Amino acid sequence: MNYPHPLLAREGWPFIAASFLVSLGAWIFIGFGVSIPLWIITLFVVQFFRDPAREVPELENGVLSPADGRIVKVERCLDPYAGREALLISVFMNVFNVHSNRSSVDGTIRDVQYFPGLFVNADLDKASSENERNAVVIDTVIAGQAQTVTLVQVAGLIARRILCYVHAGETLHKGQRYGFIRFGSRVDVYLPLSATPLVAPGDKVSATSTVLATL
After folding, report:
1. Hey, where are the domains in the chain?
2. Taking the complete model, does pTM exceed 0.85, yes or no?
């Protein structure tokens, strides 16, 4: 599922409209001074739901970042969703990052797995295994070789809604928007052990624009 990138994410339209109407009502019926904090909140809501278009880098074997944010982990571990040893790259999103999630590779979705869970700080290691999360396992082919990439949306401390719009058997393209997480979270990217990471903990990345690794 995809749609032309609007300036503001469709997931935010009801929140933006409600915040605007409350601020406007306070201005009209109470006064502009009292409405200022509400207008500030409205601006925050607008910036949170911004959804800019992104150029896809022309690198055939590149794995693109599925989210805006900061790299918090690059390590070898178990990919429990595809049942393999993998290279894990985790991207932490704060409330000021763009929160739409986009596919890292071209490929076919093998499986989509949802797990209810906790809402601890997404910056913590245990968030990957204990928080509410949604995993998308993608089979791709790079230079004639079959590869698997797993993208896991992980809810955070104040994130209370993971949205995923794709299903098993569908095809994804690099940079294609496939989901959204509301109000702070992370995305875990599990790659084959042969992948070469191009980022390190602390690096800031942008969805689609940043190449996390090569396969």
Report:
1. 10-48, 62-214
2. yes
The pair of three-digit structure tokens given for residue 92, joined into one six-digit string: 């932490």
- Return the C-alpha torsion angle 58, 5, 148, 72, nearest 10: 90
pLDDT digits 0-9 by tens, 27-80: 999 999 999 999 999 999 999 899 988 889 989 899 999 999 999 999 999 999
Tens-place pLDDT, residues 6-24: 788 988 899 999 999 999 9
Name the residues annotated as catalytic.
185
Q: Say if residues 210 and 199 touch (Cβ distance below 8 Å).
A: yes
Task: Report residue 164 CA to chain centroid gap.
Answer: 10
In CATH, which of 2.30.29, 3.30.70, 2.40.128, 2.70.70 is domain 62-214? 2.70.70
For residues 70 and 205, the answer to whether their CB atoms sit within 8 Å is yes
- What residues pair up with 177 in beta bridges, in sequence order? 102
Q: Where are the alpha helices (DSSP H) in the chain?
A: 13-29, 32-48, 127-130
Among 130, 109, 113, CA closest to 172: 109
pLDDT at res. 80 = 95
